[in-house]
Structure formats: structure tokens, C-alpha cells
């Protein structure tokens, strides 16, 4: 009965994200207690109240790209698209077209890149983001960036990691090889 519940839940996640959850099936079989703890992580990974959905989306794209996991990038894009983030903004984040982003979204994207790269520039960008949306938005960015990076790690360790190559937005397929930001 519990196994059937897990399978239904994983199929539901596949419907939501548009990506397979085989790594979670393997996690459940190998370490059921670990699976249940990880399952609690999923709602936290999607938490957003203060931060604009577009800002959260570009931060997640920047963070997951640093992990080089194509299926994870596709999941982030699918979730952002379902949340109403415009395709042109998703395209700009995937291709690192900073000119196509407004100042706040671009700054958030660059902040997430800096955090993922452990670049000290993040210290310059954090106060700007906080002045626009408050400390709550910074907390939400922390959860978005950190949680976005956990999934590729778990997948890679479980043998499901795949490098970025292409990502689909609607019916359009893009190359997902971002230019790395220039070091300051």
C-alpha cells in the first residue's frame, strides 16, 4: 500500500515537472527513510511568497546551470513556465542574454551566478535585492539557490546525472550552454 502511494506521488511529480523521477524510485528502494526525508525537501524547494516569480526563476536557472544537469535545468524551466514566467525571460536566462532582462531580474540572475560560483560580487548585489524586495526575498533566494543545487547532486550520486545540452521552452529547443560570467 505504501509502495503504491509512493509510485502515485512520483508519477504526480513527473506530471508537474515534466521529467522522470527514477532517481527517487531508486532512493526509495535503497533507503526508504532517506527517501521520506528527501520528500520533505521538495515543498521547501518551491517556497516563494515575497520574491517575484520571475526573479526566482532566473535565480534557479543560474544556480542549476552551475551544476551542469540538463534534466534539472529542464525541470526548473518547466516549473517556471507553469508558474507563468514568460518564455522570452526563460530564453534570456538560459542563453545568458542579460540585455533582455530588466535591472532587477538581471541583478538577481547575476547574484545567483555569483553565489553558485562563490564570487564575492554577491556581496555587492545582495543589498540591492534586499532594498527592492526585503529580507524575506533574500531568504527565499537562499532556499531557491540552495535547493536547486541539491537535486543535481543527488541525481549524480545516484547515477542519473546528465550534462546540459538542450532545453525546451514550449516547442522551442535551445542550447543550454551559458557563457560563464567574467570574473570581477
H/E topology pattern: HHHHHHHHHEE
CATH architecture of the largest domain: Up-down Bundle
Overall outline:
globular
Helix content: 55-70%
User: What do the pLDDT scores average to?
Assistant: 89
Ordered list of secondary-structure elements with their pairings:
Blueprint lengths: L1 H16 L4 H9 L1 H14 L7 H15 L2 H13 L4 H9 L7 H15 L4 H12 L1 H23 L8 E4 L2 E4 L9
Antiparallel strand pairs: 1-2
Written description of the protein model:
There is one protein chain. By secondary structure, this protein is mostly helical. Strands 1-2 form a two-stranded antiparallel sheet. Helix 4 (53-67) runs parallel beside helix 9 (135-157) and helix 7 packs across helix 8 (122-133). The radius of gyration is 16 Å and the shape is globular. It folds into 2 domains: 2-45, no CATH class; 53-175, Up-down Bundle (AhpD-like), CATH 1.20.1290. It has helices at residues 2-17, 22-30, 32-45, 53-67, 70-82, 87-95, 103-117, 122-133, 135-157, and strands at 166-169, 172-175. The chain starts with a helix and ends in a 9-residue tail after the last strand.
Amino acid at each position: 500500500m505504501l509502495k503504491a502511494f509512493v509510485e502515485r506521488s512520483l508519477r504526480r511529480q513527473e506530471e508537474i515537472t515534466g521529467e522522470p523521477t527514477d532517481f527517487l524510485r531508486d532512493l526509495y528502494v535503497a533507503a526508504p527513510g532517506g527517501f521520506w526525508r528527501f520528500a520533505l525537501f521538495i515543498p521547501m524547494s518551491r517556497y516563494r511568497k515575497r520574491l517575484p516569480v520571475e526573479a526566482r526563476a532566473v535565480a534557479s536557472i543560474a544556480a542549476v546551470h552551475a551544476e551542469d544537469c540538463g534534466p534539472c535545468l529542464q525541470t526548473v524551466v518547466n516549473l517556471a513556465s507553469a508558474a507563468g514566467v514568460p518564455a522570452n525571460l526563460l530564453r534570456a536566462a538560459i542563453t545568458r542574454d542579460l540585455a533582455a532582462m530588466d535591472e532587477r531580474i538581471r541583478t538577481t540572475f547575476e547574484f545567483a551566478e555569483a553565489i553558485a560560483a562563490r564570487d564575492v560580487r554577491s556581496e555587492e548585489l545582495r543589498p540591492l535585492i534586499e532594498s527592492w524586495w526585503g529580507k524575506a526575498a533574500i531568504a527565499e533566494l537562499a532556499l531557491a539557490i540552495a535547493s536547486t543545487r541539491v537535486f543535481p547532486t543527488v541525481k549524480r550520486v545516484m547515477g542519473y546525472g546528465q550534462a546540459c545540452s538542450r532545453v525546451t521552452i514550449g516547442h522551442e529547443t535551445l542550447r543550454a550552454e551559458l557563457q560563464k560570467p567574467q570574473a570581477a
